[in-house]
Structure formats: structure tokens, C-alpha cells
Design brief:
By secondary structure, the chain is an alpha+beta fold. The chain has helices at residues 2-5, 10-16, 21-36, 66-85, 90-102, 115-128, 146-155, 192-197, 209-229, and strands at residues 103-104, 109-112, 134-139, 164-167, 182-187. Helices cover 48% and strands 10% of the residues.
Length: 230
């Protein structure tokens, strides 16, 4: 994709890596969808993982920290096992789409508004990343109905209570009357404190790497097998 967008000899690379023209055309179409399709864009109409000033790139900029690359490799290996071993790909498809559409990489969280969505998501993500690195903020729990609380309790049972933070009022939107529960899933980086300490000595931006890394991973998954997910 990089060679294609930069007018390089991508056909030579296709030959080197034994990629057929048909396969490349599928990858290209999927990559273009991630940039152009409205469901993958922000409310301002910009692609979610690209610099708004870069109108041509089809690949997001990957974090250059070594630990992030290790995590990407780990997720790839785990995802391959999950995908091959699953007879029902529905939960996997939802995981990829929910990440691409609802991740807020600059804020390091993924939004969930329905308990069934986060239950299915946790089923997949807990196999791709370490459970201890997952944290949840839950809004409006005390205001919600008992039935709603029960549904969310069941949906969140995978994650230890110690990794959850409950906010009684939805101050994030300034609507204390909002009754529906919502949740934000975040991932913590073991290297992030070091990055913050060294940020003045580095020109590499801290991009809330954890959720962003997960979103980049799903971006590549969609490029590779997008036609199977739709």
C-alpha cells in the first residue's frame, strides 16, 4: 500500500511476496473504504487514523516503540488462532467494526452504549491483550434501572471490579439527567510512564498508544479480510 500510494514499484513487491493481482485489488479496495466510507470517518468527515492533511495515505502511521510492535505481533498470532478456530465469525466481525468505528485513540478509550456489545467485545479482546491491562469507566450506573444494572453486571463480569471506575453522573457530557449506562474501555501501557517522563527529549508523539495500537491492528485486519467481514 505504501509503495502504491507513493508511486513506487509495488508490482515488484507483489512478485517478491507472491501476492496475486486479485488479492492486491481486494486489499486496495478495503484500504480505500477505510479512508472514504462514512462509517469509518469522524463527525467532521475525516478518516479516524490519518492526518487530515494527508489525503493520499492508505495506511495509518504505526507507533515506533518496540513494545507496541511486540503487542501487534502478539495480537496477530492470537487473532489468527481465534479466527481459524471459530465456526461463528459474528463476534469477531463485531469486534473489528466496533474498534474501527468507536475507538477514540487520542483519548485512549473505546465507547460502549449497550451491554451486549461490550460482553461480546470482551470475549475477543481478552484473548488478544492481557486482561490486567484493561480498565473500564462506567457512567450513570447508580441512576440506571435495576434491570439495566443487572445486564451490565453480567456483561462486565470478565473484568475484576478493581479495574473499574464508576462515575455516578455523566459529567463528561454535562448531562446529570442521563439515565442510560455507558462504558469506556481503556488499555494501559507499561511503557507509558517512561514515555511521559521522556516526552521533552523526544520528537515522537505520545498518541495514547494502547487503544490506537488496537485500532491500527483492526485496520490491517480489515484491509486483509474486509470482504469476509462485510
Amino acid at each position: 500500500m505504501e509503495a502504491y500510494t507513493e508511486k513506487g514499484d509495488y508490482e515488484y513487491l507483489m512478485h517478491i511476496y507472491d501476492v496475486s493481482q486479485d488479492t492486491f485489488e481486494k486489499w486496495l479496495y478495503n484500504a480505500q473504504q477505510l479512508r472514504r466510507a462514512s462509517e469509518f470517518q469522524t463527525t467532521k468527515g475525516n478518516p479516524r487514523l490519518f492526518d487530515p492533511n494527508n489525503k493520499h495515505s492508505l495506511l495509518p502511521v504505526k507507533d515506533r516503540y518496540g513494545d507496541d510492535r511486540k503487542n501487534m505481533i502478539r495480537m496477530t498470532d492470537k487473532f489468527r488462532d481465534i479466527y481459524k478456530g471459530s465456526n461463528d465469525k459474528g463476534a469477531i466481525n463485531k469486534f473489528v467494526f466496533h474498534t474501527l468505528i468507536n475507538a477514540q485513540p487520542s483519548k485512549n478509550f473505546i465507547i460502549f452504549k449497550h451491554p451486549a456489545d461490550i460482553y461480546n467485545y470482551l470475549e475477543i479482546v481478552c484473548q488478544l491483550v492481557y486482561k490486567k491491562d484493561i480498565s473500564l469507566k462506567v457512567y450513570n450506573y447508580e441512576q440506571a434501572s435495576e434491570a439495566d444494572q443487572t445486564s451490565w453486571n453480567l456483561a462486565l463480569k470478565t473484568i475484576p471490579r478493581s479495574q473499574m471506575e464508576f462515575n455516578e453522573l455523566d459529567y463528561a457530557k454535562g448531562r446529570s439527567y442521563q439515565k442510560k449506562i455507558r462504558a469506556e474501555l481503556s488499555l494501559t501501557s507499561q511503557t507509558q510512564p517512561i514515555r511521559i517522563e521522556n516526552r521533552l527529549d523526544s520528537n515522537i508523539p505520545i498518541s495514547q498508544w494502547s487503544v490506537r495500537t488496537l485500532q491500527i491492528f483492526c485496520h490491517y485486519v480489515y484491509i486483509m479480510i474486509g470482504e469476509k467481514l462485510n
